[in-house]
Design brief:
Elements lengths: L1 E2 L8 E4 L2 E11 L7 E8 L5 E7 L3 E4 L2 E12 L2 E6 L5 E4 L15 E7 L4 E6 L3 E9 L12 E6 L4 E5 L7 E5 L4 E6 L2
Antiparallel strand pairs: 1-6, 2-3, 2-6, 3-4, 4-5, 7-8, 7-10, 8-9, 10-11, 12-13, 12-15, 13-14, 15-16
Amino acid sequence: MANTSDIRNGLCIDYNHDIYSVVEFQHVKPGKGNAFVRTKLKSLTSGKVIDNTFPAGHKISVVRVERRKFQFLYSDDSGYHFMDNETYDQIPIQEELIENAKLLKEGLQIEILFHAEKETPLTIDLPQYIELEVTYTEPGVRGDTATNAQKPATLETGAEIKVPLFINVGDLIKVDSRNNSYVERVKK
């Protein structure tokens, strides 16, 4: 058991029968009254963010988690299949655990956060930027570049995002996996 003085960003705790990660925290010592810790907690099962205040010295239950590197292999009806880079074991994971699953490309290196005691996956962290090829988009018209206009494009994984008008079929682009947005064109 730990207490509120051990709270830091990224710490995983068991709170209200769920596992939460500390997103941000602030120790507050008002002029009158007792000190407390104001926190923002993100649920690792639902992704919901809540605000919570712990009184100073309050006991918290810390959950031990491990980050492991995996490689994405393929997806089918039973889920998305990943291979551990060290043991070569394969595990299937349901789509609900993966944020922006449409950006997963075969061979992509990712990190999975595991509950250390139960050996269950909690979250899947994609790399911040993923390079993907454009498989379909309407051709851009010359002279339409005066504004920041964008058009829809389909990527090699089946995901659809908005891209600038100068992007063509076959171009390799960098996509931000946090918000599913175009970053830049990549030279081949």
